Amino acid sequence: MAVFQTAMLLAVEPAKPVNEFMLFLSEPATELFVSYEGRFKAMFPETPTKSEQEVTLSDELGKTTIYSFMYETSELVYMVSYCDYPATYTANADIQDLLKKGQGGFETSLKLTNEFSESVSLQGYKGIHFKSKNDEYYAEMKDFLIGNRLYQIGILKYGGYAAGTADKGFFESLTFIN
Predict the structure, then answer these.
(1) Strand partners, 110
(2) Helix (H/G/I), strand (E/B), else coil: 18
(3) Where in the sequence is the domain holding 13, given as residue range(s)?
(4) CATH number for the domain including 172?
(5) Is residue 86 packed enough to be buried (19+ CB in 10 Å), middle (13-18) or exposed (0-12)?
(6) 30 contacts: CB under 8 Å, gap ≥ 6
């Protein structure tokens, strides 16, 4: 899954835990993960690993840090990540254009072919939902831009799209908190 981590600009070094907690529910293999710092919550199959990586956006935009939370098996990766863009980058931009650029960059970095893309919203925030694949793996992603913060939730799976009830529940579980 290293290719997915690289494409998502994820770090391999775990970060120090900061302001997150897990709530273990009675239903097997689901845990509510809450990140107050990241201002989101989502149901993971098990406790995700946190990582962070500083990346250069461009010479004019500078750097940002990507915070990622992942649960991995040998067959799939569940992931939620976020990063903050400079306010000047998002201030007057069309949100859907920015989200489509992000989708294109993700697909290019993993050499994926897009099979599906649609505009979506969550809690009134605009987003994009897309499915892409190559000969090895299949990725389903939802990206949302809230102010200058980009959120990404996704599942990457070998051999086919994740289609189980838990997979659908993972996407549906993402909630933004104040």
Answers:
(1) none
(2) coil
(3) 2-176
(4) 3.40.1000.10
(5) middle
(6) 43, 44, 45, 166, 169
